[in-house]
Structures are given as C-alpha cells and as structure tokens.
TrEMBL record:
GO biological process: protein targeting to membrane
Domain observations: The DHHC domain is required for palmitoyltransferase activity.
Official protein name in the record: Palmitoyltransferase
Subcellular location: Endomembrane system
Amino acid sequence: MKAKERPTAAPEEGAVQVHVDTPRAMPALSPAAAPSAAPPAPPKPIPLLGVAPSILVSERKPSGVAPRAMWLGLHVLGLFLLWVEGAWPAGWPFLVVIATTFVFYSGASFTDPGFVSEQASHGPGDTLGEMLLAQPVCVLCQAPQPKRAKHCYTCARCVHRLDHHCLWLGNCVGEGNHRLFVAYLAAQAVLLGWAAVASAMTLVTGDTAGFGDDGTVIQTPLPLWRCLAGLGCCALSSLLFLAVLTLVSFQVLLVVRGETTWENLRRAKINEADQLPPDARPYDRGVWRNLLIFCQCEPDPSSTLRRRPTHSLSAEEAARKIVMSKSARNV
C-alpha cells in the first residue's frame, strides 16, 4: 500500500527556510551482482591416489650441455698440456684409449637410463588385480613406481633401478646405462693414469738431445714453459685418476653385491620397511650371478624396465601384495 503524505504547513512570512537533504537508501545489490573473490582452484589430485602433492618439483629436465662441455674442456686442456710438454705417447694405443673413453662417455650420457613412463602401466585388457598392483605412484612426478625405481630430484623423473645422478654425464645412471657408465669409468681411469705417468716420466728424465759416442742417450732439462705445462698436466691427471679409481672400485663392489648406490646408502631403511635384517641384501645372488646379470648374460628377475606382468591376479591377492610392498616402495 502507498503511504499517505502528511500535509505541510505554509511557512510564515520572514521565516528562514532551511533545506535538509535526507540520505537516500542505496539499492541493495543482488547476490549475483555483488563482487566476490574467486575461490582458489583446488590442487590437481594424483591419479589412483586422490591426494595432491605437497612438494612442488620442476617437471623440466635440466640441460646436460654445461656438464658435457665442462668434461670436454677438461680433456682438451689436459691433452693440450701433455702435447706442449712433449710427453705425448707414441703409437696408436693411446689414441685408441682416448676414442674408447669418448665413445663410452657419449653412450652413458645420451642413453636413456630407464625413465619410468608417466602413463599408467595398466591397459584396458588388464584385470583388476594388475590395476591394483600398479597403484603405487610417485608423489612427485605421478608416474607408476615399480620395485627398485626411485625418483631423481635433478631430472624430476623416476628411474628404473636408479644408482645416482651423475653431474659429469648430465644424466642419471640407472638400469638402462649402468653398464656403459662402469665401462666409461674403467676407460677414463686408464686414460688418466697413462697421461699422469707419461707426464711425470718426461718431467724426471727431461728431453732427449741425442746420443753420445758410446750410444748413450743424452738428456737435457726441459724449458721452463714445458715444465709448467708438465706440472699442470701431471697434477690434473693424478688428482682425477685417484677420484675415478675410487669411484670405479666402489661401483665394481656394488655390482658384485647386486645393489645400487642408492640402495647401499639407504639399506637400513629399506630392510626395515621389508622387515629384513639391517645388513641383508635382498638382491644379492652371489658374485658370479650378479656379474652375469649385470652384463645381461642372465635375465634379472627384479628388472622392470622392459617387462610387463603376464599373469592375472585376483583382487584379494593383489590387495594383499600391495599391503606387503607399499611401505617398501615408498621408502
């Protein structure tokens, strides 16, 4: 209903009129028109787990150009100093060692170490048991994580049987390139040791000036600039030789034990999760069999790089196996 208007009295003559503006009521905004802050988008859940990762990791693999360029630069510098000193070994064997080292390094650096596929490991034809067995995934890269596969924080990928990430290679060392890595270390140790010995012998014996009347070799001291080059080559080769020799010895020890560097460093936690003794090595099959498996002369029962499950499991059996192995996979 419309309110009745109250009549207003006429102002008297001589009275001062004061106009007062009464505030108007602002029209109420509808809920749809009222501005509101958009709620933040929920984090994307991880497939098969339904939880969001709490750690943000870059998904882009760093470039390996810098470490490879540094490796090549150090070798060019060392060989140049060896040539300037005049201690370059004669013959083709030294050139063969250089070429072998370069070939094995390139193979270990550019070969796929065994990155785990980011796609789910089950297909439309798999049974429910196989899909449940593929349930554990990495909370960082969201890839299925089979046994002995671990996440590399530098590459932001999971690697089958990860050993470590090598800064000199610019690549991970895993099941796909572990043999090439050990072969490279052996060739590198031979090259560095040969260069160090040749440089040291030239510094000690000096330069050959000719032969005496009785057939003896006449040795003369090296010039200063050649001595400086020899000292630099000998020091660089000797230090790197000791480092590489230590590393290749440790790698050979791990190979004959049937374990990786990561498993050696985390052995206590892995065995605790698997309810094994602290010093147990579950993948050790003896020295001879470990060498055969490493050289691919015998199939590796624990390998998951190119092997798919071919058997069908029931849901109950798959769930029971998941409960037994889930803690070990997430160590």
